[in-house]
Amino acid sequence: MMNPLHAHHYADDAVDLRGAEIVENLQLARDTWRVRLQCPELAARIRPGQFIMIRLHDCDDPLIGRPLALYDTYDLGDDAEAESSDTPAGIDVVYLVKGKLTTALSHRRAGDRVDLWGPLGNGFAPVAAEHLVMVAGGIGQTPFLALAKQQLGSRGYGQSQTAHAQPSASRVTLCYGARTAELLAGVRDFADAGVDVRVCTDDGSHGRPGLVTDLLKELLDEDPRGQRRQVICCGPEPMMEAAAKIAMDRGVACQVSLETPMACGIGICFSCVAKVHMGDGGWDYKRTCVEGPVFDASAIHWER
Ligand SMILES: Cc1cc2nc3c(=O)[nH]c(=O)nc-3n(C[C@H](O)[C@H](O)[C@H](O)COP(=O)(O)OP(=O)(O)OC[C@H]3O[C@@H](n4cnc5c(N)ncnc54)[C@H](O)[C@@H]3O)c2cc1C
Ligand code: FES
Q1: In whole angstroms, how far apart are CA 61 and each of 104, 149, 283?
Q2: Which residues form ligand 2's pocket by a CB distance below 6 Å?
Q3: pLDDT digits over 140-153, tens only?
Q4: Which end of the chain is more exposed for a tag (fewer CB within 10 A), N or C?
């Protein structure tokens, strides 16, 4: 009998990298930074929706790593080595300064080092939709840039690097909600990638005043019988629950990327569990690190 705790996405393909170099660490918005990490082997394997665990290299506090999503991979500049290679040089990660790790990371500069392991998690399932609608709240936009580029065919990841990317969606929209304009991070990156970006803020300081779920409702109702659509959400759980309901009420498939706190990232500690519905009408706990972080929204038993 198969071990019921077996998961398909253990860290079998992960690289454990001690002392990865920080290439740059740029502030994008209030309390929000993008760190560029040199890690070619990891970058060649990671796919949209997967994440890494990260620790400081020169300091044991915090002792436990923190999960951060892939924002994008990057290539070297126009030097000879880059021209002779079609594999990426490393990854970009965008983080909100929240507690111990992210505060310390925001003080690191180019040339400093971090420890990281990954790629981890399942990543986004292939999207078979003409119109991909991504819904982000707070710092939830971070897993979506690479997904958008992959769907629009401008960049490849994992087994299919840049040269082999195939577009699979003709249209990608990002509905992005933040508390205030100063917290919006990476809007230009999405627009430059060809994404139709629709922004709202709680205080009305940029874009539409109000909730990102209102943007989603409006978008889905614009053309209910038009292109085949799929919704993907990441952000605070009440937002994801509401967005998933809006999508599913309209018969639109929905995936969610959960951001449960994690300790090991590799399936051992069970600190990251989410409650999911099982086929038999019951429920069970699933580990977000090895059975997620991406789940079909209809499977999630939302906790209130
Ligand atoms: C798969 C995955 C991908 C993620 N990707 C990103 C990303 O790309 N960018 C980003 O900024 N963050 C991301 N996160 C969230 C990030 O890992 C946490 O915010 C992390 O705790 C920050 O570490 P810290 O040491 O700075 O804060 P900590 O010292 O760990 O925590 C600060 C405070 O936040 C609370 N907290 C910790 N984790 C969470 C959580 N998941 N949800 C709500 N509250 C929490 C703690 O209880 C504490 O009060 C991701 C999480 C997961 C699971
Ligand atoms: S973080 Fe340890 S099992 Fe998921």
Answers
A1: 9, 35, 36
A2: 262-265, 267-272, 287, 289
A3: 999 999 999 999 99
A4: N
> CATH no. for residue 96?
2.40.30.10
Average model confidence (pLDDT) for the chain? 92
- What is the whole-number distance in angstroms between the Cα of residue 17 and the centre of ligand 2? 19
Q: Kindly report, residue by residue over 157-193, the tens digit of the pLDDT.
A: 997 665 446 668 889 999 999 999 999 999 999 999 9
CATH number, domain with residue 242: 3.40.50.80
- pLDDT, position 276: 95
What pLDDT is stored for residue 2 in this prediction?
Answer: 66
145 plus 292 within the same structural domain: yes
The residue range of the domain holding 138 is 131-299
Q: Closest by alpha carbon to 35, among 112, 99, 135, 98?
A: 112
The reply to whether ligand 1 has any atom less than 6 angstroms from the CB of 274 is no
**Of the residues 120, 143, 166, the one at which a domain ends:** 120
Pocket test for ligand 2, best of 120, 260, 262 (most atoms within 8 A of CB): 262
Q: Which residues pair with 135 in a beta bridge?
A: 175, 233
For residue 269, the ligand 2 atom closest to its alpha carbon is: 2
Q: With beta carbons less than 8 A apart as the criterion, state whether 187 and 201 touch.
A: no
The residues near 98 (Cβ < 8 Å, ≥ 6 apart) are none
- Taking CA atoms, 45 is separated from 68, 119, 163, 237, 248, in Å, by 16, 7, 15, 29, 32
Position 163 scores a pLDDT of 44
Domain-ending residue, one of 85, 100, 120: 120
Q: If you take atom 46 of ligand 1, which residue's CA is the nearest one?
A: 99
- Considering its fold, how many domains does the chain have in total? 2
What DSSP character marks residue 300?
B
Judged by DSSP in three states, 118 sits in strand
**Which residue has the least CA distance to atom 32 on ligand 1?**
99
Same domain, 109 and 163: no
Look at residue 83 in the predicted model and tell me its pLDDT.
46
